[in-house]
Amino acid sequence: MKKEKKNKTVHNLPEFPLGYSIFTKIIVPVVLNMIKLESEILYFHSKNVASMSVSLSRALSTKPGSSIWLTPAHTELLKVAGFLHDIGKVAIPDGVIIKQEKLSNDEISLLKGHPIRGWEILTNNFSELLCSGIRSVFKDHICVAIGVGNGKKQITETAEENGWCEPCTSIIKELGLIVRHHHEVPDGTGYPDGLYGDQMTPLIKIISIADKICALTEERPYRLGAFPRESAIKKVLMDDYDWQMHSDEIAIMAEAAMLHFSKEKRPDEQYTVL
After folding, report:
1. What pLDDT score does 33 carry?
2. Is the pLDDT of residue 133 over 80?
3. CATH 1.10.3210.10 given to domain 18-267
4. What confidence tens digit (pLDDT) does each residue in 8-51 have?
5. Which of 117, 184, 217, 269 could pair covalently with 190 via S-S, beta carbons 3.0-4.6 A apart?
6. Please, what's the largest Cα pairwise distance for the chain?
């Protein structure tokens, strides 16, 4: 019996015109440079998550059997979120990040606070974080300088003091939510907010899956060796998402993740660290 063909739908996601990808040409290199200066491990992981997120997004949006469809602009947003998802860790002492021994309860609590810290950085302090890297180059309004909004200073009242136009404010808000929730899982046991099921948007699910797969397959100072890639993919998808997503979508992501690992060149290589 043939499986019923599922229609692809966009799941209540904000629409960002692809032209706003120019936003990332300046934001991403500046922030990646900050992350690299903080931690080589974190820098490497952030690039891996961005690249894996793109692979999963494209596969789900194009393969038959998936009900998830993301526009190229959504995939671009996911890529940026992958680069920035662990930005909250820059506020955590190096001794905790690179510690080889077992973490204490206090250190675990500190580490688990990084999604909220990242969300706070993006939603409250992002322009301050970037001002030295961007405003020194562009004297005028940031969004005008990078060509967003057709050169019009569409300043909202809430964003005026930060110098962001309304489209950029929307992008930063959405990035902040993805960063805040990248450690959530559909059964409600994740953190910081214990989201359950479809409280996690497709963007959040993809970034969460990509983050876990990459973390398991990378060398880390606190464990001996990394998971085999196939085992890591199976563990993440079957343990956390098998009951909550269609089996076809699980299979599509598993195939996309393995194909991603086989590629020599990754999508994130277009970004040059300053």
Report:
1. 80
2. no
3. yes
4. 544 445 555 444 555 566 667 777 887 888 788 889 999 999 99
5. 184
6. 64
188: amino acid identity, one letter: G
Token code pair at residue 218: 């990378």
Domain locations along the chain: 18-267
pLDDT at 10: 47
Which CA distances in Å does 32 have to 26, 28, 217? 10, 6, 21
CA-based end-to-end distance of the chain = 55
- Burial (CB < 10 A; 0-12, 13-18, 19+), residue 57, is buried
> Tens digits of per-residue pLDDT, 77-92?
899 899 999 989 888 8
